[in-house]
Amino acid sequence: MALLFIVKDPNASGTQRPTAWVDDEAREIVLQGWKAGEALLVKCLESGPIPESEAVVRLPIRMVPAIREACDVADRLGVR
């Protein structure tokens, strides 16, 4: 697997920093964020169930450029 590091949130402190990668082999954008709290999960469940194999994470809006960058990298690599 070629997991390509994109960026860690420069405004977060310590080891708890949202991060973005691109996995060109699995053809995925990989995101690390803060775990959703119970109140957010309840709101998300209004849209439908969350499978056991999935999770809701929170990313600050300031990570949008990083997510765009990850999308751009995926496009350049032909990850579709």
Indicate the topology.
Blueprint: E1 3-8, E2 19-23, E3 28-32, E4 34-35, H1 38-45, E5 57-58, H2 64-76
Antiparallel strand pairs: 1-2, 2-3, 4-5
Features:
single chain, 80 residues, alpha+beta, 3-stranded antiparallel β-sheet, two-stranded antiparallel sheet, globular
Commentary on this structure:
With 80 residues, the protein is of the alpha+beta class. The chain has one domain. A 3-stranded antiparallel sheet has the order 1-2-3, with helices on one face. The radius of gyration is 14 Å and the shape is globular. The longest helix is centred in the last third of the chain and has 13 residues. The model has no long low-confidence stretch (mean pLDDT 89). It contains 2 helices and 5 strands.
